[in-house]
């Protein structure tokens, strides 16, 4: 199993190019199931989760060709309408095939995802929405069996805001008969990116970017070309890394307009940010000020940035409070950060971080994707050596993170 060996304390300087967003690429790949035509996708990040999704979709009969980094998907020969447990248990986003399969083929068999390190993460809202559109759904032997001759448009109000739930229902609604209204829809930029692709495929969607999506169903979708939106979480992760280590880095191919709250918090922490249309320059010297926040749905503070900001807060000049409201168990990094000398206590859904003057390298273990990223940041800021075990979590969602960080002066290497 690969590990990362980091010798901390190096200032970061130079340029980093941001990749396409994992959480946009995954639903966008699934949209390939909605049409018999060809989708041409660029800026798809090279990640383990993307590879897993490609494998799942290929098994279903979707043809995927890689033309020098541009993917060509063709859904003409899709015939296997099943997402098996072996795939879904390794990647929950596999649930995103449910809506498209049901909408185009009238049938799908998708494994229930099961447990997850960061929370229970049920998919009841995906099911509730599809049932409201007329699907017959039964759960048997761990699988969701869904059937619908033709999905019918209706008004769906989800109990809570769900990102992949909105994406699944949105994709299903594009091919439903009549109009579907999705109330309480997630407004995450990745949902918007998917909606923009669907429109390019001939879908009729109003209210894109808002919490009310109105979809006029059409009888078929066609091929389209699309470039995946920049990864705001990767961007935010590198911003926190520079904030914690000090340095001067320009992030290229970034989107500054979808990171407002995180950028405000970094400025509050004393980080100097300069932004252009598709770049952010981050400069930091000395210790950051502590920043308190609570995670919420977009456009609020993203749960996917909570761990990275916490790593930065560990060595801030003062105390901060970090409240997690989206997932019930997303503080797994706390014990690992404490192993590096951080002083964090958990009180229910809030972590109270007492800033310390420095961290000291130690062996630590990654527990989930964003927890891994926080350990990388802490390791870069710590004195001495940090070895991070189980970095397959990191590889699921970051495109060559250690290569990008080495290029700006970090002492970080992958070891077997
Ligand atoms: N929820 C339900 N029932 C449902 C759906 C969601 O109770 O049917 C609950 C969840 O348990 C959670 C909350 O609603 O407490 C929000 O979950 P959501 O459905 O929005 O999360 P998701 O769609 O499973 C996506 C991202 C996550 C990100 C969350 C929140 C993808 C592939 N994943 O997950 O990304 O944390 O939205 O923004 O888009 C990551 O990249 O590290 C990651 C975990």
Layout of helices and strands:
Blueprint: E1 3-7, E2 12-17, H1 22-30, E3 38-42, H2 48-60, E4 63-67, E5 70-74, E6 82-83, H3 85-88, H4 98-105, E7 107-111, H5 124-132, E8 136-140, E9 143-147, E10 155-157, H6 163-174, E11 179-183, H7 189-200, E12 204-206, E13 212-216, E14 224-227, H8 232-245, E15 247-252, H9 260-268, E16 272-275, E17 279-284, E18 293-294, H10 306-314, E19 319-323, H11 333-339, E20 343-347, E21 350-354, E22 363-365, H12 369-381, E23 385-389, H13 392-397, H14 401-407, E24 411-415
Parallel strand pairs: 2-15, 3-14, 6-7, 10-11, 18-19, 22-23
Antiparallel strand pairs: 1-23, 1-24, 3-5, 4-5, 7-9, 8-9, 11-13, 12-13, 15-17, 16-17, 19-21, 20-21
Helix pairs in contact: 1-2, 1-7, 4-6, 5-6, 6-7, 8-10, 8-12, 10-12
The protein binds uridine-diphosphate-2(N-acetylglucosaminyl) butyric acid.
Uridine-diphosphate-2(N-acetylglucosaminyl) butyric acid is lined by residues 22-23, 26, 92-93, 119-126, 160, 162-165, 190, 303-304, 326-327, 369-370, 397.
Description of the molecule:
By secondary structure, the protein is of the alpha/beta class. It is 32% helix and 26% strand. It has 14 helices and 24 strands. β8 (136-140) and β9 (143-147) form a beta hairpin. α1 (22-30) packs parallel to α7 (189-200) and α8 (232-245) runs parallel beside α12. The N and C termini lie close together (6 Å). The mean pLDDT is 97. The structure holds uridine-diphosphate-2(N-acetylglucosaminyl) butyric acid.
């Amino acid at each position: 199993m690969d590990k990362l060996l980091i010798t901390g304390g190096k200032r970061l300087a130079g340029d980093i190019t941001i990749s396409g967003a994992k959480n946009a690429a995954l639903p966008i790949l699934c949209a390939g199931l909605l049409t018999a035509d060809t989708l041409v996708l660029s800026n798809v990040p090279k990640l383990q989760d993307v590879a897993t999704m490609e494998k799942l979709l290929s098994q279903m009969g979707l043809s995927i060709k890689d033309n020098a980094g541009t993917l060509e998907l063709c859904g003409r020969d899709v015939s296997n309408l099943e997402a098996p447990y072996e795939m879904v248990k390794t990647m929950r986003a596999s649930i995103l095939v449910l809506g498209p399969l049901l909408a185009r083929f009238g049938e799908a068999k998708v494994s229930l995802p099961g447990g997850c390190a960061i929370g229970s993460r049920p998919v009841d809202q995906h099911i509730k929405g599809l049932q409201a559109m007329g699907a017959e759904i039964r759960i048997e032997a761990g699988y969701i069996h869904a059937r619908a001759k033709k999905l019918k448009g209706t008004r769906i109000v989800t109990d809570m805001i769900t990102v992949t739930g909105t994406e699944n229902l949105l994709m299903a609604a594009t091919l439903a008969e009549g109009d579907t209204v999705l109330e309480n829809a997630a407004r995450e930029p990745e949902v918007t990116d998917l909606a923009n692709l669907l429109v390019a495929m001939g879908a009729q969607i109003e209210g894109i970017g808002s919490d009310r999506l109105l979809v006029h169903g059409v009888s078929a979708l066609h091929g389209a070309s699309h470039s995946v939106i920049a990864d705001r979480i990767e961007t935010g992760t590198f911003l926190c890394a520079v904030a914690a280590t000090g340095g001067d880095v320009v992030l290229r191919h970034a989107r500054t307009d979808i990171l407002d709250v995180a950028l405000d918090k970094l400025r509050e922490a004393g980080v100097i940010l300069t932004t252009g249309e598709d770049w952010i320059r981050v400069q930091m010297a000395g210790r950051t000020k502590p920043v308190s926040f609570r995670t919420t749905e977009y456009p609020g503070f993203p749960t996917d940035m909570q761990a990275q900001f916490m790593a930065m807060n560990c060595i801030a000049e003062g105390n901060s409070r970090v409240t997690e409201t989206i997932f019930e168990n997303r503080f797994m990094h706390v014990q690992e950060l404490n192993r590096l000398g951080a002083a964090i206590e958990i009180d229910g859904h809030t972590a109270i971080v007492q800033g310390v003057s420095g961290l000291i390298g130690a062996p630590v273990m990654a527990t989930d994707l964003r927890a891994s990223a926080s350990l990388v940041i802490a390791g870069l800021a710590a004195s001495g050596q940090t070895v991070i075990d189980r970095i397959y979590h990191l590889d699921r969602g970051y495109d060559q993170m250690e290569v990008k960080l080495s290029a700006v002066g970090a002492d970080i290497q992958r070891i077997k």
